[in-house]
Design brief:
six-stranded mixed beta sheet, single chain, 6% helix, mainly beta, 123 residues, globular
């Protein structure tokens, strides 16, 4: 039986941070990272697993840092300065990401490219 995303999430260590990250702050964790707060420009998150931000994501984020292309980045307000998943790197489009009245979004690798989609919870 194939491993489900939720199985992988629960089988990895997960670090919870209940604070916003300011410019110059960096989190580096071997597992999943959950931030309850904002990730401001100049702040960085690096995780070997998934990254979940319950707030604004405006800094640099690298999920799947050990090469895991199944890792995802999810945020309530998605506007990173740079987004990396495994070895894939993307930047915001010219003019940046729009932050107004958007639903939560998730970034993942599909067809060898980073795609950003509206988050829909598992059923």
């Amino acid at each position: 039986m194939a491993e489900q995303w939720s199985d992988r999430l629960t089988n990895m260590p997960t670090q919870l941070f209940e604070k916003s990250l300011r410019s110059g702050q960096h989190i580096n964790f071997d597992g999943n990272v959950v931030i309850i707060g904002d990730v401001n420009p100049g702040a960085e998150i690096t995780a070997s697993g998934h990254v979940l931000v319950l707030g604004y994501l405006r800094g640099l984020v690298h999920a799947g840092a050990a090469g895991d292309e199944s890792a995802t980045v999810t945020a309530l307000h998605f506007a990173p300065t740079q987004l990396r998943i495994a070895s894939h790197i993307t930047r915001p489009p010219d003019g940046g990401f729009s932050e107004e009245n958007k639903p939560p979004e998730v970034a993942r690798i599909k067809n060898d490219a980073v795609v950003i989609e509206v988050y829909s919870p598992p059923r």
